């Protein structure tokens, strides 16, 4: 079974609009982390945002926010005020395993299939 | 955050040859990882490179095909052996970013084309 599911192969958004990229996950581990990465055409993987399973509040990083719904096992990425430079592949990922108070975790990272976001001017 | 570099950035190789990819981290890290990303696909973990011990390989990946070295806490190599066109992929090295966010930072990747 897929541990990370991204159901949107491609998404389009108008510049300056907000867009939500969907991600659902499957785990029985109570301790896990959820990540979003951006991969432009250059191929590099750019870390965007992180949400821990014990975090009470949704994570935010600038124009990125994570809509974390633990009971539904979803971790959707919201990009506000889209820019042309946001056009890229976006990956949701999960890391299961032990997470201590300092945040150190040793589980492996499992990626979803990705969503290609295209921002139109 | 950790800064990761990889060499080479890209290469075109002949079938049957081997290529060694180097990964350098600017700080000491416990865990380093090697991923493969085939064209149009997601990332798949090849193995976890452990300092001072054998690498831990994921299902479908074997040491004879992808030998890995981890001589110290800042460096690792991945060799793609006896290459075939199916090995054409981006190979990415990553490392734990530190004790707070659990994130993994990635190198820029190595684009490999096998003819």
Secondary-structure blueprint:
The complex is a heterodimer of chains A (121) and B (115).
Chain A: E1 4-5, E2 10-14, E3 19-21, E4 24-25, E5 32-39, E6 46-52, E7 60-61, E8 64-69, E9 74-79, E10 88-96, E11 109-111, E12 115-120
Parallel strand pairs in A: 2-12
Antiparallel strand pairs in A: 1-4, 3-9, 5-6, 5-10, 7-8, 8-9, 10-11, 10-12
Chain B: E1 4-7, E2 10-13, E3 19-25, E4 31-37, E5 43-50, E6 56-57, E7 68-72, E8 75-80, E9 89-96, E10 104-106, E11 110-114
Parallel strand pairs in B: 2-11
Antiparallel strand pairs in B: 1-3, 3-8, 4-5, 4-9, 5-6, 7-8, 9-10, 9-11
Q: What Rg of chain A do the Cα atoms give?
A: 14 Å
**How would you sum up the major sheet of chain A?**
6 strands, mixed
Stretches with pLDDT under 50, minimum 5 residues of chain B: none
Query: How would you sum up the global shape of chain A?
Result: globular
Q: List unreliable stretches of 5+ residues of chain A.
A: none
**Extended strand count of chain B:** 11
Q: What is the average of the pLDDT values of chain A?
A: 90
If you average the pLDDT of chain B, what whole number results? 91
N to C succession of SSEs of chain A: EEEEEEEEEEEE
Distance between the termini of chain B: 37 Å
Number of strands of chain A: 12
Distance between the termini of chain A: 38 Å
Query: What coarse outline of chain B follows from CA principal-axis ratios?
Result: globular
Q: Order of helices and strands of chain B, N to C? A: EEEEEEEEEEE
Please provide a written account of the structure.
The complex is a heterodimer of chains A (121) and B (115). With 121 residues, chain A is mostly beta strands. Chain A has no helices and 12 strands. In chain A, a hairpin with a 4-residue loop joins β8 (64-69) and β9 (74-79). Chain A is globular. The model of chain A has no long low-confidence stretch (mean pLDDT 90). Chain B is mostly beta strands and 115 residues long. Helix content of chain B is 0%, strand content 51%. Chain B has strands spanning 4-7, 10-13, 19-25, 31-37, 43-50, 56-57, 68-72, 75-80, 89-96, 104-106, 110-114. In chain B, strands 2, 4, 5, 6, 9, 10 and 11 form a 7-stranded mixed beta sheet that branches. In chain B, strands 1-3-8-7 form a 4-stranded antiparallel beta sheet, with no helix packed on it. In chain B, β7 (68-72) and β8 (75-80) form a beta hairpin. Chain B is globular. The model of chain B has no long low-confidence stretch (mean pLDDT 91). Chain A binds chain B through residues 33, 35, 37, 42-45, 47, 50, 52, 91, 95, 99, 102-106, 108-114, and chain B through 30-31, 33, 37, 41-45, 48, 58, 90, 92, 94, 96-97, 99-106, 108-109, 111.
